[in-house]
Design goal:
globular, single chain, 18% strand, 2 helices, 100 residues, 32% helix
Length: 100
């Protein structure tokens, strides 16, 4: 069953600060993205803020990275592949981890 991620109460403000600090540029591909109130013509240039460790309650600067929508999707897909690989390589039996 899908879970709804919970964000901190000031997440919108924090994300806006991160985007402004990087000049509305993707920190991965360096693409210039839309600034607030600019007309959005393509979602490829929408800037998002990603929690590196996946913990949406951890808004520490070292855990946040500004990514354009395509890079954000790539990072999320990469994280899922890495997690699946780790799970495929490990089995837990009676609370003990056994590496295949």
């Amino acid at each position: 069953m899908p879970t709804t991620k919970e964000y901190t109460s000031d997440w919108d403000k924090r994300a806006a600060e991160i985007k402004k600090a990087v000049g509305y540029r993707c920190q991965m591909c360096r693409k210039q993205c839309y600034k607030p109130k600019e007309r959005v013509r393509t979602t490829k240039k929408v800037l998002t803020v990603h929690h590196i460790n996946g913990d949406t309650k951890n808004d520490a600067l070292v855990n946040l990275i500004a990514l354009c929508a395509p890079c954000h999707l790539r990072v999320e897909a990469m994280n899922k592949r890495l997690l699946k690989k780790w799970m495929d390589d490990h089995v837990t039996v009676n609370g003990l981890e056994i590496v295949r």
